[in-house]
Design a protein that fits this description.
5-stranded antiparallel sheet, 8 strands, about 20% strand, alpha+beta, Alpha-Beta Plaits, elongated, about 250 residues, 2 domains
Length: about 250
């Protein structure tokens, strides 16, 4: 018997290893199945929460509408007067969204195309590597801001690379990347301005930033368009410091 075990201990060892591996795989599969079920349950729970939130918001809006209707009825508004009131409110909302840049617009204007001076950078690098500074040959966030400051006051709507520019728009550098409205943009930059093409071009020709970029041989060109299409601003508008004035009844 001992001799038999000695001769077959290799087979026993292999069998034992496979047995342990099988048990380990079985445990792992069960754990994976439990984890998958947990993930599915979590996703379903999140979906339920979203649906509940939407239903709550919908109910809140319906309640608000009913309250307004009740208020109008109590104020003695007829159905036609109430309808006219709601129509006026809708028009005021549409006007506010249009004036705040939250509506896509079209019209005539100009397009300013601006790019990095890659050719000048390569020439400078080969001519004098020790005194070559790549930041001198790229467009910075400040260049875009200064250029807009010189011409945007004559425009009725502005966008840069498909990002609508409004009063609260942020144009800044993060490392080597320019961020506009929390969205990364890259050269070439296309600044679209809706307004009088003649007035916009005149302001651009007198712009100190435009002349600065031209003197640095930055590729910049201007073209007119009779049908510019600018998207709506889709970011958030949050007032940190300005607050509405509450009318105080006079004694």
């Amino acid at each position: 018997m001992y001799k038999f075990l000695q001769e077959n201990r290799y087979v026993f060892s292999i069998s034992l290893i496979f047995l342990i591996a099988g048990i380990a795989i079985s445990i792992w599969l069960k754990a994976w199945a439990i984890n998958s079920q947990s993930n599915v349950h979590t996703e379903q729970q999140n979906l339920v929460e979203v649906i509940n939130q939407l239903e709550a918001e919908n109910l809140a809006m319906e309640t608000a509408i009913d309250a307004i209707r009740t208020e109008l009825a109590g104020a003695g508004f007829s159905d036609s007067e109430a309808g006219a009131y709601f129509t006026r409110l809708q028009q005021e909302l549409a006007d506010t969204q249009f004036n705040s840049g939250q509506t896509a617009v079209s019209g005539s204007g100009i397009i300013i195309s601006l790019n990095d001076n890659t050719a000048g950078a390569e020439t400078a690098k080969q001519a004098d590597p020790l005194n070559y500074f790549p930041e001198n040959y790229i467009i910075h966030d400040s260049n875009l801001r200064y250029l807009l400051n010189d011409v945007a006051y004559l425009a009725e709507a502005v966008s840069i690379n498909g990002q609508r520019i409004v009063d609260t728009s942020d144009i800044r550098c993060v490392g080597t990347v320019i961020i506009i409205n929390s969205t990364r943009v890259a050269p070439p930059y296309e600044i679209s301005l809706i307004g009088s093409p003649a007035l916009l071009e005149g302001a651009l020709q007198e712009s100190s930033q435009y002349l600065y970029l031209k003197n640095k041989n930055m590729p910049i060109k201007v073209s007119r368009s009779d049908d510019l299409q600018l998207p709506a601003y889709t970011g958030t508008i949050i007032s940190k410091y300005a607050q509405p004035v509450v009318d105080v009844p006079q004694p």
